[in-house]
Design a protein that fits this description.
6-stranded antiparallel β-sheet; 22 strands; 12 helices; alpha/beta; 8-stranded mixed β-sheet; disordered C terminus; FAD/NAD(P)-binding domain
Length: about 575
């Protein structure tokens, strides 16, 4: 029997970027917030240790333990899904701060085209540019409406960057200037300009200088140690929830953090959420936490799973196309190329998570797609993140994957190779979705989440195009030999590709085709908000965190309105047909 606790104003499920932003904004307004996090507590002091690639990059010290929590996966609906026994294609974080602790810090704004992608594509290329199997739709909000929230996130995190002529328009400069450039980045920029492209220094949450944000929290200057992705920052120089929004929430006295608290169900009655049921992972005790407002701020996959498990919203049915929970799961298309330089060496072991240069000339609708067999595009970047020896073994195609030849080639090319990577957009398809597994359960007896996903023709065509463009840049950079990446026949859950999963609880203007409005409020249960990349109706050509942050700040505004006005569906933007 679960122990029933005292009711609070708000409970959040997950304490990463979205949970931290919500907690900071609501507690500043005087509301009592409880943050439930299934992982342990941690902070900057926990990263004061020798950099350990094996512990964190290979053995995933900050990631989810798949022996306790995992998903099942299949490519097609007629296949039997099997549990993911080890992390591979994407790395699911766990613990206070979530992925905001172990991210690289790339921070982008999705393009105006992204938010109105269906309308803009139809208007320019016709409604038959993609087949009806692609479930493309607008987000129910415009870029102009979301722009102030992008800047709010950038102010809080102190993002370092410079104006991007091919990116989303800005009303304000970045809070801090761009990171240092390097000979590698300069070489990329020169080659890009020779090809009439528009390179810029990558926007970064590894700050170029010490910075105090509007809430009075200090973020230190990056030390360029080369240990960002999969690692926490011992300098407090990589913006994370732990050094920005969570300290702000705690200072108000209105925030209670409860780590080691695994939420297994959203409780609801008569169209209202009443609280959550959670398990103390240390003791096994069950608790019921009542709340006036429940907010799902966990990772994409868990947000969807909790709604399906709690029987909230209509599950998506790929056969009929009806239902919304689990709909429009998207990934990212990671093309690119690697160039090998026989007579030059580069200091590839040096760097930082967001030390890079990017061109957006092939992103969004920045180029004409009339004669192309795909829509959208992706960003092309060269990054100098700190090449580490265990997992960095670039070798030319045709080299054996083990043995004497492999060792010789990997040693030779360790600092004689450079890669230009693509982050290609992912378009939703009716056969790519999330659901509950009928066969496999977790330690609490609840069904695992099932991922059904495979590459589409849109994906293959886009991957080929972006990879060829990446190869052209490397040739212009003077590479002696260039290997252009190829997409596999089918998507596989290994090896690592990107952790940019999106969709499942998508945002929109119509309750028939979306799960939440543009304040991240559930249409069917108005005191339940679902915040994060689960709201993305497709995935764009960038890392999603900047857009997640913007949506979180907008959601916080909506939740405050909901609470201040006594609880009703929040008046949404002009793009919504329902209020």
């Amino acid at each position: 029997m679960a122990k029933k606790l005292d009711k609070v104003d708000v409970v959040t499920v997950g304490v990463g970027w979205t949970g931290g932003i919500i907690a900071a904004e609501l507690t500043k307004e005087g509301y009592k917030v409880v943050g439930l996090e299934r992982g342990g507590d941690r902070g900057t002091e926990d990263f004061h240790m020798v950099h350990d690639e094996y512990r964190y990059a290979v053995r995933y010290g900050l990631m989810q333990d798949t022996s306790k929590e995992t998903i099942t996966f299949r490519n097609k609906r007629d296949e039997h899904a099997l549990p993911m026994r080890q992390l591979g294609s994407f790395l699911l974080g766990e613990g206070v701060g979530g992925a905001g602790d172990h991210w690289n810090g790339h921070t982008w704004r999705f393009l105006p085209y992204d938010l109105e992608i269906k309308s803009e594509t139809d208007k320019k290329y016709g409604k038959d540019k993609l087949s009806d199997d692609y479930t493309l739709q607008d987000w129910g909000i415009t870029y102009d409406e979301l722009e102030p929230y992008f800047y709010k996130f950038e102010q809080t995190t102190g993002i370092s960057g410079e104006e991007n002529p091919m990116g989303a328009p800005r009303k304000n400069d970045y809070p801090t200037g761009p990171m240092k450039s390097t000979p590698i980045l300069d070489r990329f920029k020169k080659a890009a300009k020779n090809l009439n492209l528009h390179p810029i220094q990558m926007a970064s949450a590894n700050l170029s200088e010490a910075y105090e944000n509007p809430d009075g929290e200090t973020i230190n200057a990056c030390q360029y140690c080369g240990f960002c992705e999969r690692f926490g920052c011992e300098y407090g120089a990589k913006s994370s929830p732990n050094i920005t929004v969570l300290p702000t929430a705690k200072k108000t006295g209105n925030f209670e953090l409860r780590p080691d608290s695994n939420v297994v169900e959203v409780l609801h009655n008569d169209g209202k959420a009443t609280g959550v049921l959670y398990v103390d992972v240390q003791t096994g005790e069950e608790f019921e936490q009542p709340a006036d407002v429940v907010i799902l701020t966990s990772y994409v996959l868990n947000n969807t799973r909790l709604l399906l498990q709690s029987e909230i919203g209509k599950p998506y049915n790929p056969e009929t196309g009806k239902g919304v929970i689990g709909k429009n799961y998207c990934y990212q298309i990671g093309g690119g190329a690697t160039g090998f330089f026989e007579n030059e060496k580069f200091n590839t072991f040096m760097g930082a998570g967001s030390l890079g240069a990017t061109v957006d000339d092939y992103n969004g609708d920045n180029f004409d797609h009339k004669a192309l067999d795909f829509i959208h595009g992706g960003s092309l970047s060269i990054t100098q993140t700190g090449r580490r020896p265990i997992e960095s073994n670039p070798v030319p195609k045709g080299t054996p994957s083990w043995g004497k030849d492999f060792k010789e080639q990997s040693l030779h090319y360790f600092n004689r190779s450079l890669s230009v990577g693509a982050q290609g957009a992912s378009m939703p398809h009716r056969n790519n979705y999330l659901s509950l597994d009928e066969n496999y359960k977790d330690a609490y007896g609840n069904p695992l989440l099932k991922l059904t996903y495979d590459f589409t023709e849109q994906d293959r065509n886009l991957h080929r195009y972006l990879s060829e463009k990446a190869g052209e840049i490397l040739k212009e950079m003077g590479a002696d030999h260039v290997d252009v990446r190829e997409i596999s026949e089918h998507y596989d859950i290994v090896p690592y590709q990107t952790t940019h999963n999106t969709g499942g609880v998508i945002m929109g203007a119509d309750p028939e085709t979306s799960a939440v409005n543009n304040y991240s409020q559930m249409w069917e249960v108005d005191n339940l908000f679902v915040v994060g990349a689960s709201a993305f109706a497709h995935n764009g050509g960038y890392n999603p965190t900047g857009t997640v942050g913007a949506l979180a700040y907008r959601a916080a505004e909506g939740i405050i309105k909901f609470l201040d006005e006594g609880g009703q569906l929040v008046q949404v933007s002009k793009n919504s047909q329902h209020v």
